[in-house]
Amino acid sequence: MSEYTTAKIDSFLRSFLDIEGFISSDDSLNGIQVDNDGSPVRKIAFAADAAMETFEQAASIKAGMLFVHHGLFWGKSLRLKGALRQRIKFLLDHNICLYGVHLPLDQHPQFGNNAQLANLLGLENIQPFGVYHGKKIGYKGTFPNPVTIDEAAKKIDFMNRPPAGIFPFGKKEILTAAIMSGGAAPNARDAIEDGVDLFVTGENSHNIYHECLEAKINLLCGGHYSTEVWGVRAVMEHCKKELGIDVDFIDAPTGL
Fold first, then answer.
1. Which 3 state secondary structure label does DSSP give 180?
2. Options 2.40.50.90, 3.20.20.80, 3.40.1390.30, 3.40.50.1100; which CATH number does 107-224 get?
3. Residue 157 backbone phi and psi in degrees, to 5
4. Positive or negative, the Cα torsion across 173, 178, 180, 183?
């Protein structure tokens, strides 16, 4: 196995994740957020969230890099104190590079959370859907055969965890669906406008409950965490295949 520095891994990830293309629309500081001391990385851990829980698990398996969907920095300067200081200190003490990719991972047409969910659902005729910060990062498509909302929920569950909410407000036989993972409940309005039968997201929102009910659109909330592990895992498998590097997935569910 070849040795990879964080710079080489960063270059590889940027070769297929459109990090540069999201600079003006994503404030989550995509890419290396905390670097190591230049030592070769022999194992990459993958997780949904940058948190002490995932840092400690990464250290326990001797990972030199942790790739996450939700990083530490979100568009504003922060004082290095409290929990943030402890997190960064832990990464530095254990020489772990933290790598975060937010919207470019949601949007990616092959490895992204939304594309992966579309594949799990078995959608065909897939097209971009749902504008967020000026870019379409979701996907919509058609089912080859009608499905019920409960059947759709089973297709996208993660480790048999129940969805956050199932709201059968529309057709019993679902032919079309639109997907935006995570906290994209407001994009239900885009799904209503597009006339799809089912909108799939992570978290629910009180504000769109009655809009979905009155529009007679089915709403499936798989959970923020459970809808945003898929892209991380797809990138993990791609790194394993293309780099030949040791990888591991850290499951740290929030229940949300």
1. coil
2. 3.40.1390.30
3. -65, 155
4. negative
State whether CATH 3.40.1390.30 applies to domain 6-102+229-248: yes
What is the pLDDT at residue 14? 97
Average pLDDT over residues 176-180: 98
Q: Is the pLDDT of residue 177 over 90?
A: yes
* pTM of structure: 0.96
Outline where DSSP puts E strands in 165-235. 165-167, 174-179, 198-201, 218-221
Cβ partners under 8 Å of residue 200, min gap 6: 117, 121, 152, 156, 177, 178, 179, 180, 220, 222, 227
Task: Pick left, alpha or beta for residue 134 (phi over 0 → left; psi -120 to 50 → alpha; otherwise beta).
Answer: left
> In the predicted model, what is the mean pLDDT of residues 231-235?
98
